[in-house]
Amino acid sequence: MHPELVAEQDYVDRAYAFLEAARDRARELTGMVQVGRGGTNQARFEREAIWDAVAARLGRLEMGDAALVFGRIDQEADGGGDGTTGGGRYYIGRVGVWDDDQEPVVVDWRAPVAEAFYRATGRMPMGLERRRHFVSRGRELLAIEDELFGDVERFRDGDGLRGEGALIAALETARTGRLGDIVGTIQAEQDLVIRAPMPGVLAVQGGPGTGKTVVALHRAAYLLYTNRFPLEGQGVLVVGPNRLFLAYIEQVLPSLGEAGIELATLSDVVGGVRVDDRHDAESVSRLKGDLRMVRFVARAARTRQRSLRRDLRVGYGVQWLRITVEETERIVAEARRRFRTHNAARRYVEQEFFSTLAESARADLDPGAVRERLRGELSVREALEWMWPVLTPAQLLNDLFGSRALLRAADSSLTADDVESLFRPRAADVDNIRWSASDAPLLDEARAVLGPRPGRREQDAVRTYGHIVVDEVQDLSPMELRMLERRSLNGSMTVVGDIAQATGAWAHDGWESILDHLPDKRPSQRHELTVGYRIPGPLMDLAGRVLAVAVPDLTPPVAVRGDGEEPRFVAVEDVAASVAEVVSEESAAVEKGNMAVIVAASQVAEVEAALEAAGVEFGRPTRRGLDAPVAVVPVTLVKGLEVDAAVVVEPARIVAEQVQGLRALYVALTRATRRVAVVHAEPLPEALTD
Q1: Domain 189-265+463-531 = CATH 3.40.50.300
Q2: Of the four listed, 176, 206, 224, 538, which is most buried by Cβ atoms within 10 Å?
Q3: CATH number, domain 537-688
């Protein structure tokens, strides 16, 4: 046992006591403003503001089961020659905690003084004499690991891991079905990403197990801490590939004291419509993601801006008022010239329409009076709806997709097959349409083209954010990237991904084709995470064989853990008859750990039926499905997840069914932290045969 373990445990207990005192003080603030029955609006406003502030503060102080303190740094007495006095001792933790004299008991991991905890090396100690890592379970301190600076003989390789014991302990902890934070074991190359300057686009390439997802989330928390104003008001958005992924990461930011960051899929940010996670067929998704859809949607809106087909005559008292086809042509042309968005021009069209009717009278008429008297007339309403209807994105696309003629008019280059793939019968009620994820960028483009409806500017406006974090960006189409650019307030974004794991309809082969579609107000920054922490060496070697065929130009991450269980190959005659047995064996091997059974989309029902027949309990890829010890997950949804063990079923079918089949297999083989079993009846892909 470390000689200072008891003393450090006492300090940790003291830190928790001050944390609880801070919570109590926050709760007491709610009593500062009491509003009785005769209270003023000002008093009510102050009460609501205080309660909101208290809720935010309590959210930041809520630790759950996570350890409050995870390390300590001791500075040299001379400050390391950087002009500081030095000699300080700081305990590093999830949030800042102060004593009754406002002296720091725990320093927030994002504070400038804590940077040395993650960055210091033997060659560049950053003024440190000692770095101490704590291994904890909740409030209980289990072990201490020290790194001493200044004494080369006692300090191992300066470029090695930081807090190796704490890191390995964290890596070997059983998974829970939810992603955990790495705040106590952040490594130097990860910290460079987390603390990189905020302006511009930061692009991070990271192979499986390098921690790119959790690093991106820590960066969001760090930026909000260091740029509280203006980011708290502008908002921070984290975009994930699907809702299963969002459920998987949802605990990370609250554990870091930041519960106000918005998590969403691209489907969620469209707003005003019901969009599923499901994608259309690969060919259709690729068509809908192509930048030619920008002109397609714009022309679709333009086809709804039309002159009348015949002159309109409407009774007004004892006389007739008239508007000719030529006059409506002039109105439409002028509205197109004057207004950038479709709906913004509707009032102008109405104004010119009624003014023209008034001018056709034998005597001077007030256009306002004409409008008030005639706007309820059926023929007038029909004329205005024909000339320039007020449209929602759903209405525009419902009409467009419901007419082959409109589809061809919007883009004459569409082939007959393209038209048929986009066509679907019009829905009678657009509010009940369930759009696919592939439709999301078209709906968003339509929103940009149409603009807010008159009188509903706030409801229809596009929400923008001060910083946007995007995970699995390598699968986003140009139209989806355009959605992200539209929501960036100032061009500040963090985008992370792995080109080797690009498996979507718009799989990118390099970062240039991604960055071309993102904001360029500032030069982009590029980082690469090269060390794989999650995947043991033998499993990384297996995945590397697939990568060498799928993307020969990419190098797999270097595994921190060189040893580990060898991958297991189980050849069977009937997969359905054998998969339950393999799942049971692998579950026993990882004991309390969790497992994903990864299958091709066409085989999900077959595998689920086999597990049910064998009495094996399992979850499905729903919001709570990953909490089960065993989950059956189609390969299309498994990206970004991590489990203790993975059973990969029929790799040949995975490869055959996916457009980027070998990349999809690479994803499947890189989800496990401990064990991989491959079950197959069909011959293995050549990359897996040795």
Answers
A1: yes
A2: 206
A3: 3.40.50.300
